[in-house]
Amino acid sequence: MARTGAGGGSRARAAAGGGSRVKGARRPEVRLPPLEPYDGGGLEPDGDYDGLEFRERDLSGQDGGGARFMDCALSACVLDGTRLHHARLLDSVLIGIRGVGTNLAESTLRDVELIDARLGGTQLHGAVLERVLIRGGKIDYLNLRQARLRDVVFQGCVLVEPDFGGARLERVEFVDCALKSADFTAATLTDADLRGATELGIAGGLDRLSGAVISTAQLLDLAPVLAAELGIRVED
């Protein structure tokens, strides 16, 4: 009888989205070699940047479309309107960057740490993010439509109206992260762990959360929105 009860409890927890069934994200392990200070001019389209440190550089309005950044560090750089469409950021660290309208559409970020960023209107639609850690900072109106995220962790950051429309999220974690008015319309979620979100606001795509796990408290908070989505009237 005890064994049967324990098994039933396990099945109940699994049905409720127990953590044992969620595959955790693999975090990046970035180990930068000794870096050379970048002393060149502006960014160049299809440029090749390897083992360089960009420190306190104003890269506003520059065009680095198609460029490759390998084993690089960008620290306290300004990226207002910087064009990095189709760029590749590999085994790199971005610390304290800030900017509005940075264009990283259809770019690739692999084994990247983004720390304490202050960004607004960043374009990452159609991008590929794999083993990426976004820690601290605040990002407003992040456009991740049609992007592919695998092994991505949002930790201790604030995301205001992020757009995941049509995106594919696999092994994505939100840890101590505030999600304000997130849109998951037409998104596909697999092993997406929302339980650690300190704030979980969903503006669209509630019907796409079947591959996500949330906590009981979050479920209660979302109950009014879920009822409205399903056309349920709640009256006492």
TrEMBL record:
This is Pentapeptide repeat-containing protein. Residues 1-47 are annotated as: Disordered. Residues 1-21 have a biased composition (Gly residues). InterPro entries: 5peptide_repeat, Pentapeptide-BTB/POZ_domain. Signal peptide: none annotated.
